[in-house]
């Protein structure tokens, strides 16, 4: 384990997105004395409603900006004396990368390079001596490719084999981050996480899509046979893992952060259907609020499951081996899947004012 690093001022890119907004909430709660600069372009997946209650807190600022705007990033780094960048900002939906890959190349590759250039200039090139700093890059398990049912889980030394424009763009950004460490001496770390779930998840993603579609008696679209397997990680556990990497991770190293929690997509959907049916049985107010929900009539939400044509290049299985994070950083997820998925369902039922605004954007995607 390396010496503990103590950041004082963080720039969080993509801080109004799903994982980013949960991270800034976690970090502000754990370290209220730190300056927290939330940087987001507020594209379709960025939502000020996810962070509004933080913006009047001491030491919290918001900048609406594109990570490709290197000059604005430089200005922000200097204005807030930022010593740590936590880089979440990315185009991340595989379906969108298949139909429109250009945005993924621009944001995930060009945008990451823009941040690296700004960080190098402000922390290494311009000061008389190199300033204490960290550049933490948040990546994905999808860069490793796909696994068969019997393959061992992805370890950090697994060869990159991306199979979608999204995962290819993330793999390229990972390599850029690594290169800035080895070529220029930028203090970087990278984390590769499994599928996250929890509050503030954009409704086009699998878990929130199933929850909201059940409420409106809409089909639950499942790709192929639904046997695609993913490792699921509660978003607050991901935030805790990133905190440990920033504070104690070895420079230039990658750390896998996983939930040790593999589920087939169809089984996830059936579990959510069961939880939603139970919620309607136990809460009469839900029946009044969502009378069109099939669960409101004591019917089975599973009847909404609809199998659709599989998407191109759909990876069959992802699984994370977190031994390195466990051994070097003492990381383990705290939330069990049973408690985490129940918290997630309850949050969507209790916070419909947040996701109903997003549904107006005609979210029809599935995973």
Beta-strand percent range: 15-25%
- Poorly predicted regions are 362-367
Average pLDDT reading: 93
- Helix run count: 12
Strand order, sheet with most strands: 3-2-1-4-5-6-10
Q: Which sheet architecture does the biggest sheet show?
A: 7 strands, parallel
Describe, in plain words, how this protein is organized in 3D:
It contains twelve helices and twelve strands. With 367 residues, the chain is of the alpha/beta class. Strands 3-2-1-4-5-6-10 form a seven-stranded parallel beta sheet, with helices on both faces. It has a three-stranded mixed beta sheet with strand order 7-9-11. A two-stranded parallel sheet has the order 8-12. Helix 5 links the parallel strand 5 (134-140) and strand 6 (188-193). It starts with 8 loop residues before the first strand and ends in an 8-residue tail after the last helix. Mean pLDDT is 93; it is low at 362-367.
